[in-house]
Amino acid sequence: MYMIKSNLAISRRNMIGSLAALAGTTALPMPAWAMGKMGGRVRNGMDQLSGPDVDLHVGSGLFRTGSRSGHAIAVNGTVPGPLIRLREGQDVRLNVHNMLDEDSSVHWHGLLLPFQFDGVPGISFPGIKPGERFTAPFKVRQHGTYWWHSHSGLQEQMGHYGPLIIDPAGPDPVQYDREHVILLSEFAAMHPHEIMKKLKVSEGYFSRQKASATDDYDFSGAERRMWGRMRMMPTDIADVSAPTYTYMINGHGPDDGLELPFSPGERVRLRIINGSAMTFFNIRLPGLPMTVVQADGQDVQPVEVDELQIGVAETYDVIVQPTKEGAFALAAESMDRSGMAQATLTSQPGRQAEFPALRDPPLLSMTDMGHGGMDHGNGAHGHEGHGAKPAAAMDHSQMDHGKMGHGKMDHSQMDHSKMSHGAMKPDTNLGAAPMDNHDMANMGGMKMRDTSLLPDSVKVGPGIDMVAMNPMDRTGFPGLGLDNVPHRVLNYRMLKSLKMDHHKRSPDREMQLHLTGNMERYMWSFDGKKMSAVGDDPIRFRYDERVRVKLVNDTMMAHPIHLHGMFFEVVNGQGHHQPKKHTVIVQPGSSATFDVTTDEPGDWAFHCHLLYHMHAGMMQAVSIEFPKDA
Amino acid sequence: MMHRIFAALLAGSTATTPLLAQSHDQHQNHSAMDHSQMDHSRMDDQPDQPAAEAPEAESPSGPLKAADAIWGAEEMLASREALYDEHGDMMLFWFQGDRAEYRVRAGEDGYLWDVQGYYGGDINKFWFKSEGEGSFGEPIEDAEIQALYSRAIAPFFDLQAGVRQDLTGPTRTHAVVGIQGLVPYMFEVDAAAFLSDKGDLTARIEAEYDQRLTQSLVLQPRAEINLAAQDIPELGVGAGIDNLELGLRLRYEIVPEFAPYIGIEQEWKLGDSRDFARTAGEDPSVTNYVVGVRFWF
Ligand SMILES: [Cu+2]
C-alpha cells in the first residue's frame, strides 16, 4: 500500500487560488497528450479544467491499478478524464479532440443543452472522426454534480469518462467547508468487446457466486428446483463483477490506498458519481452518517442515512461531518458484493481506515420476478426499525408473499392511481396483505411469462424470457441486499426536491414502456424491440407536453434508465416536492413512474445505462418536436 | 433558450432548412404508426388513471432525425447505421468442443469428438455440428457434419433445419429438422430427426445437465438415445431404439472456456441393433472410461 493524496481536495477558501492557477496553465506549452497519440502510461486520477474554453483530448495508453493493467482510453492523459468545473450562467465551449484511430464522442450527462451537442453518434450528431475536433458552445443553465462519458461503442468501459461540476450562480443552498469528488468506476484488463461476447454466449460467465451443491446460500432444495424450473439464476445480480473488474474511486483501485483529507469538524461534501459501466455500488462510511443533499445534480431536502445504493449513471451529493481526528472508510461495495472500491477519509496523511468485509451476496426473490404482492424492502420501514431481520428470514418471507400474490392478490395494492396524487403516502398499504402457508413448491407453478399481460405495444418474441405478473411500484425499495440491513438506507421515496414546485401540471397523457430481456441469450430491449429495430421510429412527443411515463421492468435485473436532455420527476409520493432526476433505477420485476415536461426539442437518447444492456439494444430515441414559433 | 439557439443555427444554414421540412413531411407518413406506439390503449386496464389520452388529431409529432437538419443527412448516415448495428444487430462467432475425449474400454481404446458452433445474430444463425468416433488402429467408425439454419423461436429454443453429411461407411446425406435449447430444470436438449437420401428416417435426442459442485467443478450427467423408423442393415441399425448412451463427466473449469474432464459412459445397442452387432461380432454393450476436454471460444 502506498499513499496517494487526492488531487481534488478543494477547500472553499483556496478555490479562488486554484482557479487562478488553472487560468495560468493556458499559457504553458502544450502537454504531450494535446499533441498526438499517447501510447504511454495513463495517469490515475484527474486534473481540473474551467473557463470559457475547455479542451478534452481523447487518446489511449496503458493503465495500471494494483496488479491489473491494460489498454485504456484516457482523456488529457488521465483516467478518469479531467474534472470540468463550470459556473451556472457562464458561456462555455467544450472542445473534444479525437486522437484515437476510431470515432469518438462525449455525452455531457445530465446537462441541459441544445440536442445537437448532446454527443450521441447516430442520434444527435455524426460522431467525431479520428483527428477531428467537436465543439459544443452553450450557456450553462443549471448547477450540480454531473459527469461526461463517451457514447461511442464501448469506450466508456475503457476509461473515457470524467466528472463535471457546476457551481451555482448564487449562494449554494448546501453549506460545506471542503469537497471531494468521488467518481466510481471499474477497470477491466479484458477488452470490452470480449466482455460483450462472453455475456452473449455464456450466461453467468463472470459470476463466481453461482449457486452450487456446496454453496452456503440459505435457500431450500425446493427453491433451488423452482429456480431451475424457471431456467433462471437467483444469483444474477451483476453481469460483470469483481473477478474481472477492479472497482475504482477516481481511477484508484483498493490497493492504491487513496486518501481524502479532512479536518475535524468540517462539513465535507462528497460528490458521488457512479461513472461505472455496469456496477451498482452500496456506499457507506461506517461510523459516519451521510446527509444526502443532491440527487442527479438537483438539490434535495437533506436526509440523513447510513448507506445508499447508487445505480450506474446516478449522482448523489452527501455531507459528512467527522468531528474528531481519525480515518474513515469510504466503502463502495458492488451490489453483488464481489468487490469494493475504497478510499480513506483521513485527518492524518498516511493513516488508512479499516474497511468492512464484503457482506454475503444477496439473492433474487419472487418479488424480483414481479410476483411480489408487496414491496417488502422499503427503507421507510427498514430504518424505523422494522426491517432488521436476518437475510434468510427475509428472503423466505418475500417468497411467501410472492406466492400469496398468486391467489389472493390484493388489487388495491396494484392500484397505482394513488401515485398520481402526490400527497398520498404510497407506503401505507405495505405489510397489510394477508399471508398463507403454501409451501415453496407451489410457487414454480406460477407463470413466469404470461405474455397476455403485455400491452400490444410490446413485441413478444425470444427476447422476452419473463413477464412481471404483478409489477409493483418499488420506489420505496432501497436496492438489492439493502432491504434488511440494521441501519438507515436511502430509497427514492425519501427524496424531496429542495424547492417546492407549484407550477406542476398534471399529465396530458400517459405512456407505458416495458423493460424486456432474456438473460440466457443476453438480449435487452424496450417493449421487446431492440434499438436496431426501432431506430427510425423514435418515441415521439409534442413540444411542451406533460407526459407520465410508467416503466415496467419485466426482467430480474435492476435497470438504470437514463433520459438525455431533460430532467423528469420521479413519481414518489412527494407531491410538489417530487425529485428531479436524469436516471431512474427500475427495480427488478417492478415499475417506476416519472413525469416529464417535453420542452427540450430535438432527438435524444433514452436507454439503460448498463453499458452492455444498451449495447445489446436496450435503447431508444426520443423525439421532441420543435415549437411552432422556432 | 435552447430553441432560440436552434433557430439561430437554422437561420445560419439555409441549405439545411429544406431537409428539416422534408423530415417533417416524412413524419406525417408515419403518424399512424406513431399513434399505435405512443397511445397505449392498454392504460385502460388500470382504473383511476387521471390523465386523458391524446386525441388522435394531436398525435405526437416530434421531428424525425432532427440531427439531419443540423449536420446533414449524408453526414449522419454512417453513424446512424453504426448505431443500429452495434445496438442490437451484433453478429457473433462461437465454437464449442463439447466433448473431445479419449475412451478406454475393452478391446481397442477409442476417441470421440462432438463439436458445434455458430455465426449469426440473436435470432438467425448459421449453425454447424460435427461428431464422430472410432477406435485406434482402425478406420473412423462414424463421422458426420451438419450445416443448419438456426432460428430462435422461443426464449430458450432454437429451431434448426439443414443437411447432415455422413463421412464414413455407406455415406449418406440427410435432411435435418431439430430443436435445441434449454428445458425447465436447466437441461440442455438437442433433438433432431433425419431423413436420408435413401429414405431412412432416424432421430437423435441428447440431454445434458450441469450440476455445479463448486464454482469450478461441474458434474455433468448426459443421455443420448438414437431411434430408427426402420431397419437399416448396412448401417447395423435396427428399427425402434437403436442405441442408448448414459454418461457422467466431472469437469474442472480452469477457466469457463477450458475444462478438462474425466468420466464414464455406458452404451447399449438395443433391439434389432443388438442382433446386428452380435452378428458382426461386436459387443452390444460397451463401457468407456473417458478423459477429455470441453472448450469454447
Ligand atoms: Cu439494463
UniProtKB/TrEMBL annotation, chain A:
Name the record gives this protein: Copper resistance system multicopper oxidase
Biased composition (Basic and acidic residues): 397-418
Cleavable signal peptide: 1-23
Residue ranges, annotated region (Disordered): 397-421
CDD domains, alphabetized: CuRO_2_CopA (cd13874), CuRO_3_CopA (cd13896)
Domain Plastocyanin-like intervals: 68-168, 244-339, 506-622
Sorted UniProt keywords: Copper, Metal-binding, Oxidoreductase, Signal
Domain of life: Bacteria
Stored InterPro entries: Cu-oxidase-like_N (IPR011707), Cu-oxidase_2nd (IPR001117), Cu-oxidase_C (IPR011706), Cu-oxidase_fam (IPR045087), Cu-R_CopA (IPR006376), Cu_oxidase_CS (IPR033138), Cu_oxidase_Cu_BS (IPR002355), Cupredoxin (IPR008972)
Organism listed in the record: Parasphingorhabdus litoris
The keyword Signal appears for this protein: yes
Pfam families in UniProt: Cu-oxidase, Cu-oxidase_2, Cu-oxidase_3
